[in-house]
Amino acid sequence: MSSEDRSREEELVRAREEISHLKRRLADDRFAEDLRDALTLVAAAGAISSPLEHSRLLEMIVETAAGVLPSRSAALFLLDEEAEELVFEVALGPEADEVRKFRIPLGHGIAGLVAVSGQPMAVSDAAKDPRQAADVAESVGYAPESILCVPLVHEDEIIGVLELLDREGAPSFSAPDMEALGLFANQAAVAIEQSRAQGNLSALLGGVLGSLGGMPDHRIESLREGVEPFVAGVEEGASHRRALELAELVREISHRGEEESKACHTILQGFAEYLRSRPRPEDEAGEMW
Amino acid sequence: MVADPGPRPAWSQQFAPEMLQTLTPVPPLDRITPEWAWGGSEGEDVKVAVIDSGIDADHPAVGGRVSGHVAVTDGPLGLLHDFEPHGDSYGHGTACAGIIRSIAPACELYSVKVLGSRLTGRGTTFTAGLRWAVDNGMHVCNISMGTTKKNFFAVLHDLADKAYFRNTMLVTAANNMPNPSFPSLYSSVVSVASHDGNDPNVFYYNPAPPVEFGAPGIDVRVAWADGGSITATGNSFAAPHITGIAAKILSKHPGLTLFQMKTVLRALSANMPRE
Q: In the prediction, which pLDDT does A167 show?
């Protein structure tokens, strides 16, 4: 773990202490409002929105959620859109170590419903009818009593679900809990997508190059070959953030619609052609980006 | 689909003396009571569409009576409408149907299944399901779902307006997430969120919309998949309470327009002072 990551962890610890303090200080009827403040604080500390190792980020999201809304266990699933399955990523709780990585096909269950409908849901007597939460039970290794499940939504798209199980200090999850976890999930989804964009920068650029038409295959191939060192270069350099911003911009534009996507493609293609017409970067002493 | 009536020269022809329609009177606001609104009504002859994950007709809460099915899917060949009976693998639509049935036991339930196990085309199948309901004479549609996709804003807005003009009442659950979702934010629908009471006939009016009504939606015992039941929280379960009440009112007072329905519901809300 780098010193930057460590200092972010410290910030997270501080934020958590601040949250506990806030919660003690404030009366019950202002609970939802307080949680919102607490979550904003976590976000402001940058604890979950900074580049971190992807799996560590997912763990931190689950830990933070289960810390802010005290719960016996928690789980996070990400959506595999192509396979139409929820992929179990992280579990936290007494039996979490025994849980293996597994997938849930969509079509049933509370996590599946939340992923398909985009609507959060809370259940307060799940153990009475264990069939209804079989998927959840599998994710943490026991049948929970109460469940709060919210979607992870990024730019209108559902990317996964976050579940808290067995609320501590209350018989079940409340409507303000749902609202608070919903706000947190929005923040978490942004962090996950940023982290993915970072991990997938080479894949993203590969995709952009692959979509360029009207160019001989060998030229595309040679551009593709340049992608890996390029990504390695930007990840080391100060320009990393700009590359991520570009990736995010392309993603945002392509979400706007077909026309916008086409316009973006035309502009990028024009720029790429201009670059190709110039001497290759290694022939010059200048910076690549 | 209803045929396009073609261009109209002017709307004023509606108001020519020989064309004027006589309206059904509604009592003064302070004389609107639950007894006037739904006394003796069980929702007879009112068609209620549940636009959701399907309905398990055999669930005891539904009682074997589903008057029609349509399952909309989006595949490589485009949109498909399947009118064969279907079930509900999630339980969500069955939960909504069970609530509606408990309030308006005689209403005609139609299952419009738009949520399946497919992720692709969710906005498209939802829109197509809603369109089917509006085009096929449903009186009330329960929409305990929505889409956050902005590119569906206009098409759903148009469809909600069409429903409004046809007197198809769209009862929508407000999004439980702090994200804008459609159609629950339009003025042409009745948007519902949860309150934590458990009397199914108690609802509140919110004078600061977009969410106009509050109905029970917290720790509600609802029907679920495989003939089971759960105690669940979500605005999804508040909307069907208003749907059921609307079905009872429309059965007793057919032809009330949406603005009259909103007025009647407001007059009957629990935060309206009474003598």
A: 92
Please tell me whether the peptide bond between B240 and the residue prior to it is cis, using omega within 30 degrees of 0. no
Q: How close does chain A come to B19, measured CA to CA in Å?
A: 46
Name the residue among B144, B173, B233 with its Cβ closest to that of A122.
B233
pLDDT by residue (tens digit) across B97-118?
Answer: 999 999 999 999 999 999 988 7
B126-146 average pLDDT score: 96
- Specify the pairing of strand B68-75 against strand A103-105: unpaired
pLDDT < 50 regions, chain A: 26-51, 204, 207-209, 211-214, 239, 281-289
- B228 to chain A, minimum CA–CA distance in Å? 7
User: What confidence score (pLDDT) does residue A194 get?
Assistant: 76
Compare all CA atoms of chain A with the CA of B145 and give the residue at the minimum distance. Answer: A117
Q: Out of A28-37, B33-42, B171-180, which region has the weakest mean confidence (pLDDT)?
A: A28-37
Contact criterion met (CB < 8 Å) for B119 and A178: no
* Nearest Cβ partner for A106 among B119, B144, B236: B119
In terms of pTM, does the model score above 0.80? no
**Residues in CB range of A142: below 8 A, 6 or more apart:** A94, A95
Q: What is the DSSP letter of B250?
A: H
Contacts of A182 in chain B (CB under 8 A): 176-178
Say if CB A120 and CB A182 are below 8 A apart: yes
Contact across the interface for B144 and A107, Cβ inside 8 Å: no
CB contact under 8 A, B236 and A126: no
The answer to whether the CB of B103 falls within 8 A of the CB of B244 is: yes
Of A115, A174, A257, the CB nearest to B151: A257
Other beta carbons within 10 Å of B36? 16
Q: For residues A205 and A228, give the distance between their C-alpha atoms in angstroms, rounded to a whole number.
A: 9
Residue closest to A144 by CA, chosen among A202, A71, A51, A200: A71
pLDDT at A180: 87
Selecting from B90, B91, B177 the residue whose C-beta is nearest the C-beta of A153 gives B177
